Amino acid sequence: IDTSSLTLKVESETNSITPTTGSIYGGTLVTLTGTNWGTQRTDNTVQISYNGGNQSTNCYVQTTSSTQITCRTDTGKVQENGKAGKMVAFLKTYEEANCTNSDNCMFTFTSNVPNIT
Predict the structure, then answer these.
(1) How far is CA 84 from CA 5, 23, 62, 78, 105, in A?
(2) pLDDT for residue 6
(3) Which one, of 103, 107, 7, lies nearest residue 47 by Cα?
(4) I need a labelling partner for 70 at 20 to 30 A (CA). Which of 14, 18, 81, 90 fits?
C-alpha cells in the first residue's frame, strides 16, 4: 500500500469566547466554543496570553466537552484595566488550539465592577 499521498492531520480549533471582558480581579466564567477538545477537565488547559506571549493568566477549566470549554479567570492576580489578551486553549499534547479568527478570541480585563443593591 502506497501511503506517500496520505496526510494525517489532528488539530483543534477555537471559534469564539464569551464573554470577551471580565473583572481585573478575576472570577469571570468564560465559555470557549470550538472543535476536537478532550472530554476530561485536565485535557485542555486554558490561559489568557498578553504582552506578546511573555505574560499569561490562568483560566481554570470548570467543564469540558468536545465542542465547549468553560473556565474561570484567575482570582489570584490583579490585572491592568483595559489589558487585552488572547484566550488560548491547549491540547493535551500542549499544542495551541488555533483560533479561527483572532478577534473572536480576545479577552479584555475591566475595572467596571457591578453595583449590588
Answers:
(1) 42, 12, 22, 14, 10
(2) 83
(3) 107
(4) 81
